[in-house]
Specification:
499 residues, mainly beta, five-stranded parallel barrel, two-stranded antiparallel sheet, Pectate Lyase C-like
């Protein structure tokens, strides 16, 4: 798989160089665009894109200045190039945005079934989403509701708020060097696209609810590298909306992220699946939920996943692998052949995203700090998971007088299965381990894994429940005042080998 990913990366770089060398430049101001941060340029920019598309392609160049626009559609063989100091400013009038039926969403920049397209340069796309979302909410409260919007928690639903980029069924895409700020919804979505290359982008996406960093939906042949994401919602989020498609052949390298949700996440919409995914050299920090979440709760097939090199600092949870059965429509979920290696992580006692404008919700209490978890279902087990060279530092201090699930059969069997719940590490509330909880799994392999608790915890480090086949080699358990404590407890499990 590594060889194929290297080949994919080389191809992406070659494609990028080819597109850039063949591009003819057009100045957007020559078409009449005004860079004063006031004039609405939607029609002017669209005319320029259409002109370049119809005349052989090229780059539409934005020089320094602020260009206000509503929804525009990028066309084949056209690249938007934002020079340093240039900003595409999203209109704050929600009526300036198009609802695109093919993807059922609003966006600042659309591309639908196009090829050889890109957004490059050291400029900025600023959706001004906080203002725009609240302007739409004000319209609804005053009785004008153009999208028949349903308000949830006093905010318009995600699809009726514009994100910055939505590309659907496109090929040969380059997103390079730009800064993306403040969408009203998700930030950038690439949906059923092929040959997507994202390099050296800076994302500040935390001005409103549901502000993801990047969403890759049912795409094939994707490279995301050297990029920074600060998001109110999931950072690097792979999704599968279609039973007929999947995310396949994806390389994510040298990325840094912060989130009030999850760092790297597959799901939660997970109908088709995720296959041949490699993630290397990832840093996640100040993140409320999990650094790594893989969820197959809608019938997804998740297979052949490598995560190599993770630093997770001040993150509420580190690893959460979950099979559920929510919107599967009879399709059987699969999760197998997962390798996570070379990880260092620190879990805090406090709320990891405290102080941000949009924090994750306060969890139901009481509960002690949750462990990492690998949780399948009795009829759909997670298979062949390897953790190697992993160190996770926990606060410990689990207190049975505050919240408790013990190791009796009644207590372990009483942990609910919750097949149709939204998959989050905290969904089971109190769990009986402080380091790792594994349930309904086959073939679990730990090598050189260290669990460290900074204070004594009433729970063992690892609890196995209905695990068939497990090897634990070179394990270390570091916990104050724990001499003689059994740190690995197995229940209804077999073929467990401790080396």
């Amino acid at each position: 798989m590594k060889a194929s990913m290297t080949k994919l990366l080389s191809l992406a770089v070659a494609l990028l160089a080819t597109f850039q060398l063949s591009a003819k430049d057009y100045d957007v101001q020559d078409f009449g665009a005004v860079a004063d941060g006031i004039a609405l340029n939607t029609n002017t920019i669209q005319y320029a894109i259409d002109f370049i598309h119809e005349n052989g392609g090229g780059r539409l160049v934005f020089h320094a200045g602020s260009y206000v626009t509503g929804s525009i559609y990028l066309k084949s063989n056209v690249t938007i190039h934002l020079e340093r100091g240039a900003t595409l400013l999203g209109s704050t009038n929600p009526l300036d945005y198009t609802y695109e039926k093919i993807c059922a969403w609003h966006s600042l920049i659309f591309a639908i079934k196009q090829e050889n397209i890109g957004i490059t340069g050291q400029g900025v796309i600023n959706g001004r989403g906080f203002i725009t979302a609240n302007n739409r909410l004000n319209l609804i409260h005053r009785g004008y509701n153009p999208g028949n919007d349903l308000i949830t928690l006093d905010r318009p639903r995600e699809w009726n708020r514009p994100q910055n980029i939505y590309f659907r069924e496109c090929k040969n895409i380059t997103i390079k060097d730009i800064t993306l700020r403040d969408p009203a919804s998700w930030n950038q979505t690439y949906d059923q696209c092929q040959n997507l290359y994202v390099d050296n982008i800076y994302v500040d996406s935390k001005s409103y609810w549901n502000n993801d960093g990047i969403d890759i939906v049912d795409c094939k042949d994707v490279v995301i590298k050297n990029s920074f994401f600060d998001a109110a919602d999931d950072v690097l989020c792979l999704k599968s909306h279609s039973f007929e498609h999947m995310c396949e052949n994806v390389l994510i390298d040298n990325c840094v992220g912060r989130s009030s949700a999850n760092g790297l996440k597959f799901g939660t919409v997970s109908r088709g699946g995720f296959k041949n995914i490699t993630v290397t050299n990832m840093t996640i920090y100040d993140t409320y939920r999990s650094a790594i979440t893989f969820a197959a709760v809608d019938g997804a097939h998740i297979e052949n996943i490598l995560v190599d090199g993770v630093r997770s600092i001040n993150t509420g949870n580190v690893i959460y692998l979950r099979i559920g059965n929510r919107w599967s429509r009879g399709k059987e979920p699969v999760m197998k052949d997962i390798t996570i290696k070379n990880v260092y992580a620190e879990v805090p006692f406090h709320k990891a995203d405290a102080g941000y404008n949009y924090e994750g919700p306060i969890e139901d209490l009481p509960r002690n700090i949750s462990p990492a978890s690998i949780v399948g279902l009795p009829e759909y087990k997670i298979e062949n998971v390897t953790l190697e060279n992993v160190e996770i530092v926990y606060p410990g201090a689990g207190n049975p007088y505050y919240a408790k699930v013990g190791l009796t059969p009644e207590e372990l069997d009483g942990i609910p299965e919750q097949p149709d719940r939204y998959p989050e590490f905290s969904q089971f509330k109190e769990l009986p381990a402080w380091g790792m909880y594994i349930r309904h799994a086959n073939g679990i392999h730990f090598k050189n894994v260290t669990f460290k608790a900074l204070a004594s915890d009433y729970r063992p480090a690892i609890v196995l429940d209905d695990v068939n086949g497990g090897t634990f080699e070179g394990m270390q358990y570091i916990e104050p005042n724990s001499e003689g404590k059994n740190q690995l407890f197995d229940y209804k499990s077999q073929n467990i080998e401790i080396k």
